[in-house]
From TrEMBL:
<dbReference type="GO" id="GO:1904121">
    <property type="term" value="F:phosphatidylethanolamine transfer activity"/>
</dbReference>
<protein>
    <submittedName>
        <fullName>Phospholipid transfer protein</fullName>
    </submittedName>
</protein>
<dbReference type="InterPro" id="IPR017943">
    <property type="entry name" value="Bactericidal_perm-incr_a/b_dom"/>
</dbReference>
<keyword id="KW-0964">Secreted</keyword>
<dbReference type="GO" id="GO:0120017">
    <property type="term" value="F:ceramide transfer activity"/>
</dbReference>
<dbReference type="Pfam" id="PF02886">
    <property type="entry name" value="LBP_BPI_CETP_C"/>
</dbReference>
<dbReference type="Pfam" id="PF01273">
    <property type="entry name" value="LBP_BPI_CETP"/>
</dbReference>
<dbReference type="GO" id="GO:1990050">
    <property type="term" value="F:phosphatidic acid transfer activity"/>
</dbReference>
<dbReference type="GO" id="GO:0034375">
    <property type="term" value="P:high-density lipoprotein particle remodeling"/>
</dbReference>
<keyword id="KW-0325">Glycoprotein</keyword>
<dbReference type="GO" id="GO:0035627">
    <property type="term" value="P:ceramide transport"/>
</dbReference>
<dbReference type="InterPro" id="IPR017954">
    <property type="entry name" value="Lipid-bd_serum_glycop_CS"/>
</dbReference>
<dbReference type="InterPro" id="IPR001124">
    <property type="entry name" value="Lipid-bd_serum_glycop_C"/>
</dbReference>
<dbReference type="GO" id="GO:0005615">
    <property type="term" value="C:extracellular space"/>
</dbReference>
<dbReference type="InterPro" id="IPR030675">
    <property type="entry name" value="BPI/LBP"/>
</dbReference>
<feature type="domain" description="Lipid-binding serum glycoprotein N-terminal">
    <location>
        <begin position="30"/>
        <end position="248"/>
    </location>
</feature>
<feature type="disulfide bond">
    <location>
        <begin position="151"/>
        <end position="190"/>
    </location>
</feature>
Length: 440
């Protein structure tokens, strides 16, 4: 019994590093089998373009008294009518072509005794079957990469039609020539696709940055954190999804959020974002000093200024008549990184800020009427507009209390409801218009 317990304990301890080392995804993208239908056309175009550029070596031979040379082979048309793109579990993608055709033309030189003849040959390959499997992985820098490719190509039959003065006489040579051409074409299809995938496509993937600037303040790291997970129904890619302050790019952020989960397969593409995705963005903007706002002069809504003047703050101003007609301002500064919470009911952002109510008498230093702590909770509505992720904030909970005295906090209670309404109507639209959240 003790031996069994020790074995279980050792197994658990040995598994802890791997469990702790698994980094949760900040962003997850799922492409379903329905999404492959959208990609199949582009894949088919790419394959057709690569096959049309196949170069074949010159072919020479002798059949009885005939000596022939075939060169300048050109593919004129590809008809990949029966093409399919699907997932291979734990591997990647499979592009399958069945019962298709290829039309090509090439030049001939034929010597029979003392007769020499040249001309063109129009040929068609029928029953073309190509089976190509791509293994997808994550490279060292976090980019998607084609690790290897397996390919199998087969042509069932090939026909040739001669042109020229002695075209009909040479028809019996067609069997010999088409057999050789079918063999050569079979040998060229897979190398062409291998080179296209491992060289051309991977070279293109290497040009895609995994860290880029969002704006002048922050950037984003969207590198893959592990190999794509492929099932029979989907391909899931886990991205780091971490924003960072451009002035402090080396500062690491640890992801303690729950890994985003996608359970559906009905649509073509799914995007899942964790709390870390938004929190890293909020933290980066906070460290960059963006969550500060000075509402003064024309930026101060008239209704908000009237509310401030006719309530508790107006009574303070009456104590100094020189301040009665002076302009008012609000200084808002977030004093800690905002926190995002994602539930099935939606996403919320909790924010705490210091609000200073100021009076600006002309020719004199600003006078602070009050310093308050504002605790607020926003509902965050996430949407995709074109290719841009947008987040719209809506103020839901609002609380203020004085930083100076408990008595002043009591005096601020009647202000909470109307001030919340004023902020919802005036300040929140200003926040949204500044794209402080939209940039995420």
């Amino acid at each position: 019994m003790i031996v069994c317990l020790l074995s279980v304990l050792l197994l658990f301890v040995s598994s802890v590093p791997s469990i702790m080392g698994a980094e949760p995804a900040g962003c997850k993208i799922r492409i379903t089998d329905k999404g492959l239908d959208m990609l199949k056309y582009e894949t088919q175009k790419f394959v057709e373009e690569e096959l049309s550029n196949i170069s074949m070596p010159e072919m020479q031979g002798k059949e009885g008294r005939f000596q022939y040379t075939i060169n300048d082979v050109k593919i004129t048309e590809l008809n990949l009518t029966h093409a399919d793109l699907r997932f291979i579990p734990e591997v990647g993608l499979l592009f399958d072509v069945q019962n298709s055709s290829i039309s090509l033309t090439f030049n001939r030189r034929i010597l029979y005794w003392f007769f020499y003849d040249t001309g063109n040959i129009n040929a068609s390959a029928e029953g073309v079957n190509i089976n190509t499997a791509l293994n997808l992985i994550r490279d060292e820098e976090g980019r998607l990469k084609i690790n290897n490719i397996s390919c199998d190509a087969n042509i069932d039959k090939m026909k040739a039609k001669f042109s020229g003065t002695l075209g009909r006489v040479y028809d019996f040579l067609g069997r010999v020539l088409t057999t050789g051409m079918r063999f050569l074409l079979n040998q060229q299809i897979c190398p062409a696709l291998n080179h296209a995938a491992l060289v051309h496509v991977n070279s293109l993937l290497e040009t895609i940055p995994v860290r880029t600037e969002v704006d002048q303040f922050i950037g984003i790291d969207y590198s893959l954190i592990d190999d794509p997970v492929v099932t029979a129904r989907s391909l899931d890619m886990n991205f780091r999804g971490m924003f960072f302050d451009l002035s402090q790019q080396s500062v690491p952020l640890v992801n303690y959020a729950v890994d985003p989960v996608i359970r559906e397969y009905d649509r073509m593409i799914y995007l899942a974002l964790s709390e870390f995705f938004f929190d890293s963005g909020m933290f980066s903007y906070y460290t960059a000093g963006i969550f500060q706002m000075h509402i003064v002069n024309e930026k101060m809504p008239k209704d908000l200024e009237m509310l401030l003047r006719t309530t508790y703050f107006g009574a303070i101003m009456m104590l100094n008549p020189a301040l009665v007609e002076a302009p008012m301002s609000l200084q808002l500064a977030v004093n800690s990184p905002p926190k995002t919470t994602i539930k099935t009911s939606g996403a919320t952002v909790t924010m705490t800020a210091i609000v200073k109510v100021m009076v600006l008498p002309p020719g004199q230093p600003p006078v602070q009427l009050s310093s308050m702590t504002m605790e607020s909770k926003f509902n965050a509505k996430v949407s995709m507009r074109e290719k841009r992720l947008c987040v719209h904030a809506d103020l839901r909970r609002f609380k203020i209390f004085s930083n100076q005295s408990a008595l002043e906090s009591l005096a601020l209670i009647p202000l909470q409801a109307p001030l919340k309404t004023m902020l919802q109507m005036s300040v929140v639209p200003m926040i949204n218009s500044k794209n402080l959240i939209h940039q995420l």
